[in-house]
Amino acid sequence: MPHTLYVSKNSGSFAVEAAFVLAKVPFKSVEIDTEKKEQKGAAFTAINPLQQVPALVLEDGTVMSESVAMILHLADLYPASGIAPPAGTAASACFLRWLTFMTVNIYEADLRYFYAERYTDEAGLPGTRAAASAAMQRHFAILEEHALTPGPYVAGDQFTSADAYLAMLTKWSPEPVTSPRVAAVVAAVGAHPLIGPLWREHGFG
Questions:
Q1: What is the overall mean pLDDT for the chain?
Q2: One-letter-per-residue 3-state SS of the chain
Q3: Which pLDDT belongs to residue 1?
């Protein structure tokens, strides 16, 4: 059976779907309606106890959560796909560095902003959101100056799934991301012949 990916619109599943599309690997897509809280139902909870989308069931039945882990696993499965640069290269080192950076800094700050109630009481909500928004902008600026200089992509000359991941994060920023190199990556994702349609399907374009 093919890989089965549990997805929802405007979620972290976009980056994993983009990796599949970039690799031209077929997969079964199962839509989870998060507005109807389907992720909290017994069927999905049995797959991912965290009740979070995406979740990936591999061909042998192994279940994965965490979108970045899925991307890295797919890169291992399909090393010639373009999901990631060749292992052991300088471009691979940059890919791994900045993909991890985005996950632990920008994605984490995004969660603090939109789910601030998980981190503080009602009195602390405004301050938590303000700090999270500032953190996102600071980390986008670091990407602009360091990851994308000279660029044009996160891993240098090669477009990879890290660029799709970065573009996705910009769409969740509470403040406009105006950094020109970051904006160029977003434009490249939207114009990509394989990933562009998926970008628009998720409502990002």
A1: 97
A2: CCEEEEECCCCCHHHHHHHHHHHCCCEEEEECCHHHCHHHCHHHHHHCCCCCCCEEECCCCCEECCHHHHHHHHHHHCCCCCCCCCCCCHHHHHHHHHHHHHHHHHHHHHHHHHCHHHCCCHHHHHHHHHHHHHHHHHHHHHHHHHHCCCCCECCECCCCHHHHHHHHHHHCCCCCCCCHHHHHHHHHHHHCCCCHHHHHHCCCC
A3: 77
